[in-house]
Each structure stands twice: as structure tokens, then as C-alpha cells.
Amino acid sequence: MITRLTDKIWVVEGGKNGRYPYAHSLYIADGGGYLVDAGSDPEEIERLRKENGIAMVVMSHYHEDHFTFLSRLPDTPVESSAADAPALESLETLLAWYGVLGNEWDAFYRKLFTETFPFAPRKIARKIADGEEMRFGETRAVAVVAPGHTPGHLCLHFPDDGILFLGDYDLTAFGPWYGDAPCGIDAFRASALRLAAIAADRFVVSHEGPVHRGPIAEKMDAYLAVIDRREEALRDYVRKPRTRAEIIARRLIYGPGRDGPWFDYGEWALLSKHLDGMLARGEAILRDGAYLLE
Ligand SMILES: [Zn+2]
């Protein structure tokens, strides 16, 4: 389904209300047609390509639920932030930045990315920097590169239209993702607060309800509070010594009944960021392979 926010800025809603493995796309019906992210709806994307044109794909970042249908546009040039480009250009970098290259999750993610989604490396035609003005025909956006979710997550501010595309700073009840290898909690928080302070009327996110009316400061605070709740739950759990395997199995993030390597990876990717912080601040120690609150 396509919703027109303005004459030229449209939301292409993803399946399952944009829940994983889908993500809403943005479409700019100007300058030959720009698709922002390719994880929404393959039929709508194909219809847009035929009827309206897709001259360029802009990737907000390199996550699989955003590139799902990119391989169906093999001849369309792709733009991304300079910081995220390496992971869109190379499967090995993609796996490394997920934090799975060469470890127990390598084979699972390699298969997931090559077969299920499927990843095809793309040479990034133009690499975008923070603050750069982007022109889509007559439509103007300012690039806001927001590290933390990925190193170069690209948000788009359309100042003339009062619209800010937040991508995966998505304000969902699940809470933030900061589990990629080059990322972390502090960067995520700083980017989220920076985004919430940008004046716009409508904020478009990649998952669940796609449009939030501004201001979103309170919603962003509630979203960031999930980080604190995760840390509290983890602190409580490591009052006794707990190994990595125990921490993963406890399912502090996803809850019980979510089995398998996808969830194992997600638990560790997020909680290891909390543990790194707790160790660095001297709030916890790692002894004989077990984490323990000091
Ligand atoms: Zn993402």
C-alpha cells in the first residue's frame, strides 16, 4: 500500500505493518523517482518501477530487512552514506559489521543473507555525508547521518515539507538496536536525541506505524528508556556469576520461547554492549568466564 504524505513524498508500506522481515520504504516521485530502502513490498516496488520510474535507490543502511528486494533492481544505481557503503559493497564486511564473521553464527547469517534476503553486493554510486543537501528533482532533503544503529545510518530531512525520515530510529516498543560491531549505546542515544530535536511535522519510521506526528521528544525518551530497562534486567541477572551462554539463554531481550541462532545472536549483540559498558565503568567484572556485578 502506498500513502502519499505530499504530492511527491510517498510511503510504501511493508508487509506485516513493516515488522521484521519487512521495512517501509519512502518513494520520492520527483527527478525520475527515488526509492529509499527496498524491504517493503516487492509488488508495489515493481509497479513503481514500471509506472513511475526508479532512477535511484537510496539505502538508509545495510540491514537485511532494508535490502530484501534490492536484488530485483540490479541495474538501478544505489546511494548510501559513506560510512555504511562498505557493508553494502561486500558480504564479508556485512558479516563482520554484524559481528558474526568467523564465529558460531557465521554460517547461519551467511546463508540467511545469501539465500533468504538475498544479498547482492552493490557498488555504491554516490556516498553521502552528514549535512549534505540531496536533490531529488525539485525536492530537497538534508542528509542526517546518525551513527549508533549502524555506523552511517542515513536519515533524510525534507525541510520544505516538514518531514523527517527516521529509518530504524523507529520508536517501536521493542526498543533500539545498537548491536552491530562498530556501534554502541552512547552513539545511538546521541543520534536519537539529535533526531528528536529536528523540527518537523511528520516523522517517518521503517517499522510498525510509519508516520508519527511531531514533536516526538516524549516518544523518543520512552524509546530510549528501553535501553535502561535492559540494563537493569541484566544487572539484576549478573548479581550471581553468569557465563556468556547463560546470559544468551536467559532471553532478557526477546523473552522466553524465542529459540534459535537469530535470537541467540540478537541477545548477545545487544547485551554485550551493556556488559562492555559495565566492565569499562568498573560496575561488573569478568572472572573465570563469568560476568558478575561488583
Ligand atoms: Zn536496521
Task: Tell me what you see in this structure.
The chain is α+β, with helices and mostly antiparallel strands and 294 residues long. The chain folds into 2 domains: 2-221, Metallo-beta-lactamase, Chain A; 238-293, no CATH class. Helices cover 35% and strands 22% of the residues. It has 10 helices and 16 strands. It has helices at 15-18, 42-51, 64-67, 85-89, 91-98, 106-116, 185-196, 217-237, 244-250, 261-280; strands at 2-4, 9-12, 25-28, 34-36, 56-58, 78-81, 124-128, 133-136, 139-145, 154-158, 163-167, 202-205, 211-213, 242-243, 284-287, 290-293. Strands 1-2-3-4-5-6-7 form a 7-stranded mixed β-sheet. The longest helix is centred in the C-terminal third of the chain and has 21 residues, at 217-237. The relative contact order is 0.11. The chain binds zinc ion (ZN). Zinc ion binds at residues 61, 63, 149, 168, 177.
Write the layout of secondary structure elements.
Blueprint: E1 2-4, E2 9-12, H1 15-18, E3 25-28, E4 34-36, H2 42-51, E5 56-58, H3 64-67, E6 78-81, H4 85-89, H5 91-98, H6 106-116, E7 124-128, E8 133-136, E9 139-145, E10 154-158, E11 163-167, H7 185-196, E12 202-205, E13 211-213, H8 217-237, E14 242-243, H9 244-250, H10 261-280, E15 284-287, E16 290-293
Parallel strand pairs: 4-5, 5-6, 6-7, 11-12
Antiparallel strand pairs: 1-2, 2-3, 3-4, 8-9, 9-10, 10-11, 12-13, 14-16, 15-16
Helix pairs in contact: 7-8, 9-10
